[in-house]
Specification:
278 residues, alpha/beta, TIM Barrel, eight-stranded parallel beta barrel, 9 helices, RibuloseP-bd_barrel, BtpA, BtpA family membrane complex biogenesis protein, Aldolase_TIM
Length: 278
């Protein structure tokens, strides 16, 4: 928790804005000679987050559908994400942490990008216990991932880990509660645990939040479904929230960022923080 506070500062319930980069070269949705427009969009969205003073930024290759498992992620994805991450890091103020996620379950790839781009955290899937995602079976990776982090001298990069990852079946671990999963991640040296709804844009349930709040020693993050209308439900329970869909036009992750949505959300957060300070 101390490392988290050192990186993110003292604001209550940190706001991490998502940058969903356009489909990258080599993936089905990549457009012919679209690389320059991808770069320009990333620059624009990073500048927008800078202006509205979010507490952190997370870069993700969400448009690379259909995803492949980590063993099939190509060198071109790592190269492109590194270039884009360095652009974002150059725009976002040095005191504002930036992170990266590489789908699907490209946790080592993300660590390599973070190391090369001076990022402060990654979002990792499949950290403890196995699950079945829409891209196939994913095994747990904590031991291998943290050994890799040690190997490449990236121990200053925090690893935030999804619990019972969305878009996945957890039937084989149905007898393991969310809290037990979080405790396992904590025992396996996770730097923070992420709770989500069942799909992108779906809110984490109040039951799930109650099951974890105050019961884990590592930071608790909410990774989907937070909006201006429900941020108050999470504000006193979560150490940080990751906002993707709500910041887009029509609340659709496929769309571009809607500046008015970011502005309205951050205004609501400022009011909550002011009330908290009083």
């Amino acid at each position: 928790m101390q490392r988290f506070k050192e990186i993110f500062g003292n604001n209550k319930c940190k706001i991490i804005g998502m940058i969903h980069v356009n489909a990258l070269p080599g993936t089905p949705r990549y457009g012919y000679r679209a690389w320059e427009s991808t770069i320009e969009k990333v620059r624009k969205e990073a500048q927008l987050y800078k202006e509205h003073q979010v507490d952190g930024v997370l870069i993700e290759n969400m448009h690379d559908v259909p995803y492949v498992r980590d063993q099939k992620i190509g060198a071109e994805t790592v190269a492109c994400m590194t270039h884009l991450a360095q652009i974002v890091r150059g725009i976002i103020p040095a005191e504002t942490p930036c992170g990266v996620q590489v789908l699907a379950c490209g946790n080592k790839h993300a660590l390599a990008v973070a190391k090369a781009s001076d990022l402060q955290f990654i979002r990792a899937e499949g950290y403890v216990f196995g699950h079945i995602g829409d891209e196939g079976y994913t095994d747990s990776c904590a031991g291998e991932l943290l050994r890799y982090r040690k190997k490449i001298d990236a121990e200053d990069v925090m690893v935030f880990t999804d619990l019972k990852k969305k878009h996945s079946s957890h039937a084989i671990t149905a007898d393991i509660s969310l809290l037990e999963t979080a405790k396992a991640a904590e025992f396996f040296l996770s730097d923070g645990v992420i709770v989500t709804g069942t799909a992108t844009g779906q809110a984490a349930s109040s039951d799930d939040m109650d099951a974890l709040t105050g019961k884990v020693k590592v930071p608790l993050l909410v990774g989907s479904g937070v909006t201006k209308d429900n941020i108050s439900d999470y504000f006193d329970k979560a150490d940080a929230v990751i906002i993707g869909s709500h910041f887009k036009h029509n609340g659709n992750w496929l769309e571009d960022i809607d500046e008015s949505a970011v502005e309205g959300f951050m205004r609501s957060v400022c009011k909550l923080r002011s009330g908290d300070e009083k």
